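Hi again,

Forgot to attach this to my earlier email, sorry! This is the prediction with iron/sulfur cluster bound. I've pasted everything inline since the attachment limit keeps bouncing my files.
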Amino acid sequence: MKHVYLAPSRRLGISLGVSPIPFKTCSYSCVYCQLGRTTRKSVERKSYFSREKILAEVEDALNKLSIAPDHITFVGEGEPTLSKDLGWLIEKTKDSGIPVAVITNGSLIFREDVASELTNADVVIPSLDAASERVFKRINRPHPSLRLYEIIEGIEKFSREFSGKLYIEVMLVKDYNDSSDEIMRIRETIERIDPDGVYLMTPIRPPCEDVRPSERIEEAGIAFKAFNVIKPEHGEFHPELYSSAEEALRSILQRHPLREEQAMRVLRHFNAEKKILEHIAEKIEFDSRVYYRLKLD
Ligand code: SF4
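Structure tokens for the complex follow:
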């Protein structure tokens, strides 16, 4: 399974994640990104893989699974709207009858082609980590062609026209976007966008760079009228989708670090030895928990 994996999601329940773009291909290079710095920063939409192969993987995964996921979620090892095939894939996967969600950094929604493709999804979750250009550049390190005001206008327009559910996701990072002024600016921007809800996060899994969870999360949560989602996920990563422990661990770790107990559950499923995990992942501590993170080249 190259493009598809099943994971419990803090936002969408059991979610069949589909990544239509290559690893670390994104229009941003966020300081908190769990994939490390973006290696291919781009705003050019392309067909990166065979869309038929991606669709076949989704169908195969749905056949193999013992449970029906709550959502099929386009998410990326980067930014999913950079895939030119996103609209086609949303349309085709909707035939399964399972609601389709897209988790996006929102940077390209101002483009008509992207907005029009996203209107077919049931749920769209764009990020909004900043409401001032200076903070935007510092926390998201965007492609030089991107302007925050244009991105915000695009999300506002999309919100007015979209008939599905639109949630805004804010990642609050200590000393980056958690000043009182920025929190107030983000709140005003959210009010203008008028989404169906706000997910407020702070780094709870270890990012690659030295960033810390914000201590002002409660204050921001009240300001944004956010759902409370800052807690580790519960649930399984469904290793039955894979043929070996190494394949399962690589596939999951490529998207995000695993807590130690989650990694151990995958090993137990395959009756595999811990050295497989130690070969591909490094052990790290973050916020008093032990995690395994894929070793980066
Ligand atoms: S938008 Fe997402 S994938 Fe892109 S750099 Fe930021 S966190 Fe990483």
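The CA atoms of residues 105 and 219 lie 23 Å apart. The first strand starts at residue 4 and ends at 9.

That should be everything now.

G.
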